[in-house]
Task: structure prediction
Amino acid sequence: MYTFGERLAELREKRGWSQQELAKHAGVPYMTVWRAESQTHRYPRVDIAKRLARALGVTLDHLCGMYEDDDSELLPADAVLVEA
Result:
């Protein structure tokens, strides 16, 4: 079972992005990404997790690992997720 940080790093690496690039795409500080991936801050706020998920082209459920058997593919980097 992946932690939030491990899943975040895996998805970021699949995009070929550095932590700085993810932070820029998500509109969050670099240290936020670093802390999440290094397990220094294991549970980011929902609004931060939502920004990271949107930048990575996945749902918040997928990023958080809500469903362990969720093997959905990444959306294109320019895909826009519809906000409910």
Remarks:
- The helical segments are 4-15, 19-26, 30-37, 46-56, 60-64.
- The chain has five helices and no strands.
- The chain has one domain: 4-64.
- The mean pLDDT is 85.
